[in-house]
Amino acid sequence: MSQIPGQLNPSPRLLLGPGPSDAHPRVLSVMSTPLLGHLDPQFLAIMTETQEMLRTVYQTQNQLTFPISATGSAGMETCLVNLVESGDKVIICTKGYFGNRMVEIASRTGAQVTVKEAPWGQVFELDQIRDTLKTVRPKLLGIVHAETSTGACQDIAKLGKLCHEFGTLLVTDCVTSLGCIPVKLDEWEVDAAFSCSQKGLSCPPGLSPISFSTRALEALKNRKSKVQSWYLDVTSIQSYWGGATVPTTTQHP
After folding, report:
1. With pLDDT > 90 as the criterion, what percentage of the chain qualifies?
2. Whole-angstrom Cα distance, residue 46 to residue 49?
3. pTM of the model
């Protein structure tokens, strides 16, 4: 048997940057176990366990809490394309690179996007956001909890309650925060959140844990149009992850 080329056997690295973190040896060992089909009873049991652990780290009871099989940016897009329709009013609070990415994705839904900006490295005061909510009265407000590009951490403990005073859904980017600092979706009244697997959770990249509140699911149920993305359409996969009837087709999770 020929040897595997050297470039597929990289020398050890200690990952300390803002990108991937080192995966725990237990995680790496599990990745070497035999594959299971996505309808295998053992696989379904693993899915249930995964959801329970994600609810713990997100500190939520949200039934629809599961990992999207893609990166954190896909988690961002999942939240926005499912909850926003063309013509909806949306506020995006941006104070760094990934807030700007939320603006880009929200704009592509056809929404009327109002951008609330703060200097990079700074955060928003609650009253600043309150004034914008009063003026715009949006369906959704998106904000980054911990901005990867600057390290700035936004206090959102009271933001969900404020948004709900105006009938607004709160979506938070928890890519850098989940597993690193407390994230309390239920206590903070967050309606949808997304993260990634390769930072605070210390797993390989390629998964984006998301969570939808009952308010978010109600908004999804009341859509007037189809979700713009087929692959990221939560309405088509929530039965698979949400504890309802498991599909018998070959459609992948």
Report:
1. 78
2. 5
3. 0.90
